[in-house]
Amino acid sequence: MKKQSVFLALIILLNLVSVGFTSLASAAQQPNILLIMSDDHSTRGLSIYGSYRNTTPNMDRLAHQGMRLTQCFAVNSICGPSRAAIITGKYGHKNGFRRNLLRFDGSQTTFPKLLQKAGYQTALVGKWHLSRNDAENPPTGFDYWNILPGQGDYYDPDMFDMGERKSHKGYATTIITEMGLEFLKKRDPDKPFLLMVHHKAPHSPWGYTAKHESMYDGKTMPEPPTLWDDYATRSEATRTAQRSPMASLTASMQNDEWATGRLEDGGTTDPVKLKSLTYQKFLKDYMRTVASVDDSVGALTDYIDSQGLKENTIVIYTSDQGFFLGEHGWHNKRFFYEDAIRMPFIVRYPPEIKAGTMSNAMALNIDIAETLLDFAGLSIPNEMQGRSLRPIFQGEQPDDWRTSMFYRYYQGTGVPIHYGVRTERYKLIRFHETDEWELYDLHKDALEVNNVYSQASYSSVVRQLKSEMKRLVKELEVGDSDLEEFVPNLPGTD
Ligand code: CA
Q: Which domains, and CATH codes, for the chain?
């Protein structure tokens, strides 16, 4: 009996060890995911991307420990549609969220839902922005969520805590960071987690904290080379946007409460002076809010590292799209121009990503869902339209990696509806309502100031790009009526 008991005890012990190994193995296969996303952060506002106007030490440190993507683009450069594309892995014509202020169909497949089903603890804190009223259209796929209503407030914001509206004292970026840390502290350590920390900053109206108030005192922000762009070769559709507060710095000045009467020379009517002063105030306030997001990245990664989670946690810092920081005389995003579509994208995951690396592979916001499912070892639904970035992160770009992308902006508020195609070298844009085209040769004209669409030497390039756009429209099953009209008669494709 005694021998049998020892034998039985051994069997139990072996089983326990084996269960222990299994759970360790599955934990190793299913890394934790911390996805920090800000709102409207241009790559020109991170020192690791070469900013000449600010520094972001914590974001830079994360990039030095992992990889930075230089060509990561939003397929529709505006808040809600980019967020919908990120969680569904699909374009707006497939996930239904083509414009801001629509109601996101929360019954569809998203990567947080699939991770939740696979045993992840899932949490979302901060800005959601996928409905008119977040209380009536709550996020799905999260065990815990605490979100700002709509755009939310920078100071003393209200938030929906699992549907219950609560008031908070303090600054939004700090509050959202603390909520993220709180989730990490209270989570079940035996399960992998997905934590999405979505900041309001640096979205307008650029409210900052006392800590960052004096950081630009006595300093002048350098102006970008295209601040005084004269739009000489551009379409009428683009020039029209100069009168819209959705694009023009000075028009925003006249319409936005953020700036009214707060310029150093608030009474000036001189358009040149007004634009310069608006630029200075806008850039300084914007960068002050970026500094708070950088602090947040530092606090969250410090916590991950202090808990011994560095090796088994994928940490991503990104933004829903880019932003014009005075380039072309603009603020805001929306356009299919470089500064608006390019997202900062930094990822750290020591077991698979070599520290201090960079990739120029063309990545899209619709790739994020498939990438995270791939890392979690889950199968990727056929309906998703991106591609896993995991080989890119590992430094191995597949031979058949994409060389072009389709872009489509539907909103139309201030910036006209348009779509187009970008390759590594060229960008072709069509403004639908005015039937105008623009073509930029990014190798010769990285700042996109010279539209060469009508130049004879580019006629074969135009034909090739139209043909490529037609191919992408078909592959992505765009099928919207205006494109259906356009595609069969695509000029120059024969
Ligand atoms: Ca945004």
A: 29-210+280-399 (3.40.720.10), 407-489 (3.30.1120.10)
